């Protein structure tokens, strides 16, 4: 005992100071470690899923949050971010000029159509996570399961159609049907995922027959172009012809109405004259004669009116004719002298 006491009293002060500092440093590190493991940050587009000893505890919102140190674990799920899975190719680098890799993924995209032809189909499945709990705990690996579901759905839909439909006119319908089928399977499996869109990136025939299929596509596009041009010509010419026909019909109807109205007016006038004629035939006849002469005589030019015999007017008429002839001769001579 005396030796131990002597040893304790013989410890240098510098050693005690160093020992005390080490204890403070270790205590500080422990406090920092506990604080570091107790607080965590969730990004704005994520939800934090707290798991305590392997059991789900709660979902935490974005921001600074607290958990039990060394006991709780946090899985951050990007619920506000649009995710995607690519099939038949992979994006190597995204940017202004993105780079893609096709080699090694042909087995995903090469599939059999309904008419026993092959098609190389590349597509993208865009989705969001709407239920973090189901996404993490209902299925062992949600990403892998979604990939298998997407590939199976695409093969099923493509297998029900001909190669021409898949390559040309049926692409939009294929994408919609695949999206609906994937969503129904995802809901059935409780993956906690919403399928937002299925995009068919590129659909090509196998390389040995690609030139023939390209020729068919060009012919179909030319056919559509000619059909559209014909429809445009039809829409331009037919309305014009119909308008011209309608105008001709209206003019004919107007002319017919005018002729009918004139005829009806003449008939009415004749009936009125006839009614007056029946009342006083001689007077009516005289009036009609005078009215007719009133219209005809101004149109006759030079005229001489005599009685029925005309004997007393002949000398005067002869003198007027001779005087008229002399006047004409004089005018001719004057014109010749000039």
Determine the structural class based on helices, strands and strand pairing: alpha+beta
- Rg from C-alpha positions? 55 Å
The parts where pLDDT drops under 50 for at least 5 residues are 1-7, 314-319
Instruction: Estimate the mean pLDDT confidence.
Output: 81
Question: How does this structure look, described?
Answer:
The chain has 338 residues and is an alpha+beta fold. Helices cover 58% and strands 19% of the residues. It has helices spanning 2-9, 13-38, 106-109, 132-137, 142-159, 163-167, 171-189, 210-279, 281-296, 314-337, and strands at residues 39-42, 47-52, 55-60, 63-66, 72-77, 83-87, 90-93, 99-101, 110-112, 118-129, 193-204. Strands 6, 9, 10 and 11 form a 4-stranded antiparallel β-sheet that branches. The chain has a 3-stranded antiparallel β-sheet with strand order 3-2-5, with no helix packed on it. The protein starts with a helix and ends with a helix.
Summarize the entry for a quick read.
By secondary structure, this protein is of the alpha+beta class.
Summarize the helices and strands and which ones pair or pack.
Layout: H1 2-9, H2 13-38, E1 39-42, E2 47-52, E3 55-60, E4 63-66, E5 72-77, E6 83-87, E7 90-93, E8 99-101, H3 106-109, E9 110-112, E10 118-129, H4 132-137, H5 142-159, H6 163-167, H7 171-189, E11 193-204, H8 210-279, H9 281-296, H10 314-337
Antiparallel strand pairs: 1-4, 2-3, 2-5, 6-10, 7-8, 9-10, 10-11
